[in-house]
Amino acid sequence: MKELYNSIFHRKSIRKYDMSPLQPDVLSEIKQYVSNVKPLVPTIKVDFSYLTAENVKNPLPVKAPHYICIYSEKVEHYLMNVGFMLQQVDLYLSAKSIGSCWLGMAKPANGALLKMNGMDFVIMLAFGNAAEPLHRASISEFKRKAQNEIGALSEVFDIQDAVRLAPSATNSQPWFLTGSAERIQIHRVKLGTVKAIIYDKLNQIDIGIALCHLYIAAMEKGKNVEFLYDKNDEDKAPKGYEYMMTAVLY
Ligand SMILES: Cc1cc2nc3c(=O)[nH]c(=O)nc-3n(C[C@H](O)[C@H](O)[C@H](O)COP(=O)(O)O)c2cc1C
Known about the structure:
Strand content: 15-25%
Radius of gyration: 17 Å
Number of helices: 6
Order of helices and strands: HHEEEHEEEEHHEEHEE
CATH superfamily of the largest domain: NADH Oxidase
Helix content: 25-40%
Number of strands: 11
Mean pLDDT: 97
CATH class of the largest domain: Alpha Beta
CATH architecture of the largest domain: 3-Layer(aba) Sandwich
Structural class: alpha+beta
Low-confidence stretches: none
Bound molecules: flavin mononucleotide
């Protein structure tokens, strides 16, 4: 957990890769880690598969030797669950000095691979050895909103800062935190109809990513975390935001 926490402060998206494949033992260690990542909602069925560059269709020019795809059943909170799970992998890879990048536009080239065992392809992460600097030296290298733009949690600065540094699609950072040290609500920015066409799904994945950072920071502080959707918290959303999830820290 300590190494994932440290990754939060040094990771970055890697978009240039050494195209030689990772060593088989490194790859199998990664697959082993992936098969054990913690879900946000344990009842949601998910699965993972691995692709190489020739089997991926990506309109943007990020090419890597490996890609991990996540599949899920489409039930309530599945997008947050996917973000929560795959962000653990992003942080793990960074801790292992392997580059990675979330790809919101990429899809398996073979249309048949958009489905697997009754689940749908949701999103993928590119990964491999980096052909550019792998880590940020300090927090000042992150382009992120200020603390007061993403939350009002003065008591748990460290947890809020871990959320603040989370990656998000087009770096939109659509989250806002309210609550107390024991009970934190996360909200998502409301989108206009045009933006929603592209970002409605990605922003829900982003919230799952932020919850992953919240979870790792809370565990690092010796807290356990339980996630729940509480209808009574819906009215805690500030203007322009929609309530998504509550984290109970104990
Ligand atoms: C859900 C999601 C989708 C993303 N899709 C892409 C993408 O298609 N192409 C890309 O180059 N980067 C993509 N990114 C990376 C973001 O642009 C990046 O995380 C953000 O700008 C912050 O930069 P950092 O990750 O280096 O801290 C995506 C990130 C997330 C979380």
